[in-house]
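Continuing the batch. This is chain 6 of the set; chains 1 through 5 are on the previous pages. Same settings as before, nothing changed between runs. Recording input and output for traceability.
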Amino acid sequence: MSEKAIIFSTNYDLFIEYAMKYYNDTIILCDGFKRTSDINSNYYFSSSEYFNTIYNTGNLYRYKVEIPSINLIKLHGSLNWQKEDGKIIQDLSYITKADKLKDSNKIDEIREFNSLFSIVLPQDDKFKITILEQIYYDLLRLYSNELDKENTILIVEGFSFADQHILEITTRALKNKTFNLLIFCYEEKDAKTLYRIFNPYKNVDIITNSTENIDFEQFNNFLSEINIVEDDED
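Output for chain 6:
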């Protein structure tokens, strides 16, 4: 049984990365960056990093134990992604400059602010310029491949499926009857659109609460009650 979980996120923030600082001793977070730096001490992004598995091996005995890990796949990029010579590097040094521009109302300064981040913005021409186009489709392919695997469950929180690319991949995967989609709605009213979208599919469950919102704490409480059993063929 694999000890690896996968988180797909369309958020740009570094919430998960900062949270993982408290679990570095027990869980490894793979964010797609090669941790072997070059001579300039830069970490470069490569989607191939998501296919790596890390083991502990005994000093005296030949045992091998997989270290629990999480693949964090940020489909729309991240605030710590920066373009350099046709590649994506991990860099936060420009955040100070961005902070000075964040409250600007001037169009030129707003464009300058947006240009600082290697992220996929919600606009029609989002793929015209940068190398993010190739990375975006590489990561979408990873998303698609995971959903096509047998006995996969996708647990969704805080996502409306308004992104047409992601919606199309998800609905196509639902034709696989061993795939199950579990969606948590923050507010009960959020479920109306989702019921309309996923009504044709029997392998979709939409979770709502009529008395209170399902916030992040409530969502985690639900997850703690879910037991996922995976067959071990080894």
